[in-house]
Amino acid sequence: MDMLKCPVFRPGDEGYDDERAGFQALARHRPDVIVGATDAADVRAAVAMAAADGLPVAVQATGHGMPMAADGGLLISTRRMTGVQVDPETATARIEAGVRWSRVIEEAARHGLAPLSGSAPSVGAVSYTLGGGLGLMARRYGYAVDQVRAVEVVTADGVLREVTAATEPDLFWALLGGRGNFGVVTALEIGLVPVTSLYGGGLFFDLATDVVKRWAEWTRDLPEEMTSSIAVIPFPDAPQVPEVFRGRRVGHVRIAYTGGPEEGERLLEPLRAIGPRLVDSVKELPYTESGSIHNDPAEPMAYYATHSLLRELPARAVDALLETERAILEIRHLGGALDKPGLGPVVNRDAQYQVGVLSRLAPGGDPGEVRPLHDGVREALSPWDTGGRGLNFLYGENTAPDQVRLAYDPDDYRRLAALKTVWDAGNLFRLNANIPPA
């Protein structure tokens, strides 16, 4: 480790626990050593040493979608790699491995541009993108990964490569959806879109208004410019909860419309006609305030989550979902530009809805307490399930090989496994949603 000029932590060292901590508090990495990389040279040195010592490699930026907790091995923390460079002439940005979407949004906005960021600006932009990236404008512009122009990556041999569709087409394809299986990505060049504002925000209803069925019916005939989702949240009757939500089961419709506010108002008329809103915050807002639409928590939390991808969302499916009263539900409307072929192996593009189930637990809690509930939801939705999974929504025990396979078309999975043999035959990069070598 002497060749490293960046911070290095071992168990028991001051700063070790802070360095391995992330947003997901259900489990923590327990690596033998952590390298706090400051640039690509640190990543190269860390990968070379891990290979020499036979240590598997894990990577963490913000720890939101931590695929699995590393037990041993070497963890590369990229949170210090936060460079962002926007080129307004080409409408692209170079983003380093540890940058959060909030920084990219701010820099792009200076030039009248926006990235295909997700609901939470605090999420790491690179890891989000490599897993697909299902964002606020997804129905209009597709997956974030389809905007990648170039990838800077350190492969298992310790070499830093700039990979494009022209220079290394097979590796480029594999990186755009293979997430961390083929190397440690130190930077991406991504395309930006000409968006400065959205007509967006939230509509909150008491669930007694039958809002979920009405929202599902409303989504069946919408332009691609409208991306929306609905969360069903059982709020406790507790002093820290805003009084308007206290003790209620609430339906929170999230709106992100890339068209004009007048047309947005017209499109939302059927939703506002459902009944009284507890809160209605939908308005024209700058993209720099797009995080307010979902208003996702910014503080670390422990949670267990599963999801299903559906071909359709009929009333019977909604009834089955709403029987689950003890968890947070989230239904995302897909389709539109998400249906179109992309650059990498991100599939399940035929799905029209994604249904997530989330249960909050104590840090280090046992998912076994809520697993039967989650399994029951999946089973209830099985008549409409595509059988697929979204890679960015797999973590913990749900990164088992049988679940990871469901995130890919079978032919694509076989191609990925074959390419893994070419680029990482020893499976150095296996502390992730792993694709073993063929």
Question: What does this 3D model show about the protein?
Answer:
The protein has 438 residues and is α+β, with helices and mostly antiparallel strands. Helices cover 24% and strands 23% of the residues. It has helices at 16-20, 40-53, 101-109, 125-130, 138-141, 169-178, 211-218, 261-272, 315-322, 371-381, 401-405, 410-423, and strands at 8-9, 33-36, 57-60, 74-77, 84-87, 92-96, 148-154, 160-163, 184-191, 197-206, 226-234, 249-257, 279-280, 283-286, 302-310, 328-333, 353-361. The chain is globular. The model has no long low-confidence stretch (mean pLDDT 95).
Largest sheet: 8 strands, antiparallel
If helices are DSSP runs of H or I spanning 4 or more residues, what is the number of helices?
12
Radius of gyration, in Å, reads 21 Å
Mean pLDDT: 95
Low-confidence stretches: none
Number of strands: 17
Can you tell me the overall shape? globular
Offer a few descriptive terms:
438 residues; alpha+beta; 8-stranded antiparallel sheet; 12 helices; 17 strands
Write the layout of secondary structure elements.
Layout: E1 8-9, H1 16-20, E2 33-36, H2 40-53, E3 57-60, E4 74-77, E5 84-87, E6 92-96, H3 101-109, H4 125-130, H5 138-141, E7 148-154, E8 160-163, H6 169-178, E9 184-191, E10 197-206, H7 211-218, E11 226-234, E12 249-257, H8 261-272, E13 279-280, E14 283-286, E15 302-310, H9 315-322, E16 328-333, E17 353-361, H10 371-381, H11 401-405, H12 410-423
Parallel strand pairs: 2-4, 3-4
Antiparallel strand pairs: 1-2, 5-6, 6-9, 7-8, 7-9, 10-12, 10-13, 10-14, 11-12, 11-16, 15-17, 16-17
